[in-house]
Structure formats: C-alpha cells, structure tokens
Amino acid sequence: MSTPQLPSDVRATAERAVRLIDERLPGYLDGMYLHGSLCWGEYFDDSDIDFVATTTRRPNETDIAKLQQNHRDLPDHFDGFYLPTTQLAEDPSVLPVHPGVLHGKFTVAHHCDANQVTWQELAERGITVHGPDAGELDIFTSDTVLELNTRTNLEGYWLPRLQGLVDTPDAGIAPREAAWSVLGVLRLHHALTQHAITSKSGAGRWGLEAMDERHRPVIEHALAWREEGRDDGAFADDAARQSVTVDLLSDVLGQHDLHPTDTP
C-alpha cells in the first residue's frame, strides 16, 4: 500500500512535535507515527491529526511536565499519546496509564485511542514521520481482541448514546453530530461483520450497499458533511435528522443484540 501524501500543515505540525521533544527531552523519542483519517487518505479541514509517539522509556515527572509544555506550543487538534516502543507489542486493552492529549487537554490516563483499531491501523498503514518504518515495528494485532473491543465500544458508548437520543426525540441533532453518529457506528458494524477495519468514509460507502435502502439518505447526508462540510438538504430540520439517525443506530445495534429500553 502506498503512503498517502501528507498535507503540508500536517507534516509541519508533526515535524515540529518531533523537534520539540528532541530539544526538551533528548534521547526520549523513538518514533512518531500518524494514523486515523490521514492513513486512509481522508484528511478534511476539520480532521484531527492523530499520532502515536513511541519512546525509549516510561516517563518520569520531568518528562511528563515537558511533554505537557510541548503541547501548549502545538495545535489543539494534534491528538495522541506516548508509550514505550515495546508496549506496541502488547494488547492495548491492558496497557498502564500513559501521557496523552485530546482536544488540547493533556492527561496521564488510559487514552481512548490506545485500542486495537489504532494498533491495526499502525500495523497495516501507519505513516512514519520519525524513527523506524511503521511496517517494521512489532505491533500486537488480534482479530479476537478487535472484535471484543468493538463490541465493548458498542455497549459502553454507542448504546448509551442511542438511549439519549431515544429519550429526547424532539431535541434534534445538527449535521455534524449526525455524521459522527452514522459513520462512527457503521465503522464498528463493518469491523464486526467484515472482520476488517475501514475509515469513516469507507464505512459510509460500504453502508450504502450493506444497509437497508431506507438508510441511504442519512448515510449520504453524513458523507456530504464529512467530506465536503455541507448540509445536503435531505432533512427539513434537526428533529427529522435525529429521527433517521436513531433508526440507523437502532438497526445496527439491534443486529448485535443491543437495544435501548423503551421510554415511558
């Protein structure tokens, strides 16, 4: 697989992150890798820059303070985490806490992107900014763990999200939220049924063929928002958009025996 061409601003941000680490923590960084939308060639104006930085050691308090300082000098959409290179060979669901940043918030915790999907992306198509080529790394991959993590995500995040929409039927959702919900849940549905990962846009295009025809308008609506940043006008208002989003989420989760409780 050929490596997607990085947008100039993305490469500049990633290379700046590498320079800051080398300046403030010489000898700490092993590698800097990008994944997410970028590795699928689907970087859009509002996309995050998702990174995994591999390091030569577990961080001490000084390391953590300097990493946090670095991220004050980097864009808020530069999202990712730091962990020793050897831990890529481990099941990500059992990792200890590690430094990371999400939407500009730096923490030492279990980063939400330290999961089997990220490990699979790195192994299959990770983009190398610094260090050994991603294809040469020892990275843990497991179809069993991917399936388990995906189902856990459906149960722990998407079912409560659906329940919230069911409980507030007239609240309405904006195009951005609908696109996040539709393409996000289709991506997990694809992983469980096709036993392979794909991008959000890839999941949407697959869903156009795999899902019931009644879902086509909201999937096309989600793709238009994600890829072009536009509301295609398919729905009269936010409440109508919410109704069809709930229908798709209910269909997907129902196929995996997950159902919201009925409201009174």
Task: Describe what this molecule looks like in 3D.
The chain is α+β, with helices and mostly antiparallel strands. The protein folds into 2 domains: 8-136, Beta Polymerase, domain 2; 143-255. Helices cover 48% and strands 13% of the residues. The chain contains 8 helices and 6 strands, in the order αββαβββαβααααα. It has helices spanning 8-24, 61-72, 116-125, 143-167, 175-194, 200-210, 216-228, 238-255; strands at residues 29-35, 49-55, 78-84, 98-102, 105-109, 127-130. Strands 5-4-3-2-1-6 form a 6-stranded mixed sheet, sandwiched between helices. Helix 5 crosses helix 6 (200-210) and helix 5 (175-194) runs parallel beside helix 8 (238-255). The longest helix has 25 residues, at 143-167. It is globular, with a radius of gyration of 19 Å. Keywords: Transferase. One of its GO terms (molecular function) is transferase activity. Residues 179-233 form the Adenylyltransferase AadA C-terminal domain.
